[in-house]
Amino acid sequence: MEAITHIFDELNGMEGILVASKIADRVGITRSVIVNALRKFESAGVIESRSSGMKGTYIKVLNDAVFDEIEELKRQNGRN
């Protein structure tokens, strides 16, 4: 779940471009963890994603209830 909080922190809104390797490097987890989290959220219908090649991945949030859930996770983990 740590990967998800970092993904949505980086997204900073309902849509945008994410570079998985940059997020992974910054927070000290592997790129595959970020990519797998994105895939799970896409298969659950929470996000839509489209590769933008070397620029990253375009992400669009389809279910904004996810933001409330992420904020709750952050509170539970003592992270604002």
Annotated CATH architecture? Orthogonal Bundle
Number of domains: 1
Based on helices, strands and strand pairing, what is the structural class?
A: alpha+beta
Uncertain regions spanning at least 5 consecutive residues: none
CATH homologous superfamily heading? Winged helix-like DNA-binding domain superfamily/Winged helix DNA-binding domain
Rg from alpha-carbon coordinates: 12 Å
Beginning-to-end CA distance, first to last residue:
15 Å
For this structure, the CATH topology is Arc Repressor Mutant, subunit A
Count of helical stretches = 4
GO molecular function, one term: GTP binding
InterPro entries: CodY, GTP_trans_reg_CodY_C, WH-like_DNA-bd_sf, WH_DNA-bd_sf
Protein name: GTP-sensing transcriptional pleiotropic repressor CodY
Organism: human gut metagenome
Attribute tags:
single chain; 80 residues; alpha+beta; Arc Repressor Mutant, subunit A; three-stranded antiparallel sheet; 4 helices; 54% helix; globular; GTP binding; WH-like_DNA-bd_sf
General description of the model:
This protein has one domain (2-76): Winged helix-like DNA-binding domain superfamily/Winged helix DNA-binding domain (Arc Repressor Mutant, subunit A). The chain has 80 residues and is α+β, with helices and mostly antiparallel strands. The chain is 54% helix and 18% strand. β2 (47-51) and β3 form a beta hairpin. The protein starts with a helix and ends with a helix. α1 crosses α2 (20-27) and α2 (20-27) packs across α3. Strands 1-3-2 form a 3-stranded antiparallel beta sheet. The chain has 4 helices and 3 strands, in the order αβααββα. InterPro entries: CodY, GTP_trans_reg_CodY_C, WH-like_DNA-bd_sf, WH_DNA-bd_sf. Residues 15-74 form the Global transcriptional regulator CodY C-terminal domain.
